[in-house]
Amino acid sequence: MPAPFELQSVVHLVRPAGRTAHDLDQLRQGIADSSPETLFYHSLQHQLRQPTVEELHPADFTGWVNGVVQDRETAERIAFAIEQRGGSPDELRDALLEVLDAIPPRTRVQRDSPEDGDFVFLDMESVLVATGRECHDTGELIGHLGDVNPAALFYHLIQQPWLSPGAPSLIAWTREVGDERLAQVLEQSVRSGRPLEAVRRSIVRRWRRSTLGRRLAAAARVPEDDRREQGRRAVASFVRRMTTPTETTDDARHR
User: Fold this and answer.
1) Which of 82, 105, 113, 164 could form an SS bridge with 117, CB 3.0 to 4.6 Å?
2) Cβ contacts of residue 245 below 8 Å, gap of 6+?
3) Cα–Cα distance between 118 and 27 in angstroms, integer?
């Protein structure tokens, strides 16, 4: 049996990388010279900045090309490259350079930003933070994923596989404990490119659906008196949630 998996959260320390881009040609050069952390920050880290939005905002490269340079076609191609070929630093860099290399050099220079609209490349350093949550099985994992800080979800499902593929992986651990179906759910949720809270809800909902048969079979084996007691506890828990002030509930969720 694999060892318990400890969930971790992450904080990002961001600083200028020392490069700016005034036009698409300089953007191309900046991407070619960027570290994996810089590529990650400007292409994928935006999922963490506003985890509860209904619709995910565009990645930094996409947003600048579309909104500042006002080259919608190139912005759409950059967004597609990030979505379809963002699985690793080298793959993403190659995909972005292919998009920009398809534009003639002279045209890349002409597609520029207004004064004070230059793109500022940023670098990122990660600091891991313990959550105090340890998972012994996938049922416990789902319980923890339901209420941990969104940064923990982001780190284990998006950042760690991308920046540190050799480190202990939550998805690999899920497979080691024998839950291939949940591992696939986690992988599909990552590829969805949705806001983190939507990803969280999807994971919990799909896991519950996938285990409904097993839970019904297990419940059928529970003595009648125990089932009645479980029902009373469930009702009492629901009543407590309904009668707890919203402010208290929100505070508890973020502690």
Assistant:
1) 113
2) none
3) 10
> Which H helix or E strand runs over 92?
helix 89-101
- Per-residue pLDDT band for 2 (boundaries 50, 70, 90) equals confident
Euclidean distance between CA atoms 195 and 182, whole angstroms:
19
Listed as own residue / partner, the contacts of 242-248 with beta carbons closer than 8 Å and 24 or more positions apart are: none
- Please, what sign has the CA dihedral across residues 182, 162, 76, 49? positive
What residues does 122 pair with on adjacent strands? 16
Biggest CA–CA distance in the chain, Å, is: 79
Q: What are the tens digits of pLDDT across the range 175-232?
A: 999 999 899 989 888 776 789 999 998 888 888 876 654 544 444 555 776 656 656 6
Is residue 195 a contact partner of residue 47, using CB atoms and an 8 Å limit? yes
In sequence order, what are the beta bridge partners of 124? 14
* Rounded distance between C-alpha atoms, residue 53 and residue 241, angstroms: 24
Other Cβ atoms less than 10 A from the Cβ of 197: the count is 15
Q: Read off the pLDDT of residues 59-101 as tens digits, 9 standing for 90 and up.
A: 999 999 999 999 999 999 999 999 998 889 999 999 999 999 9
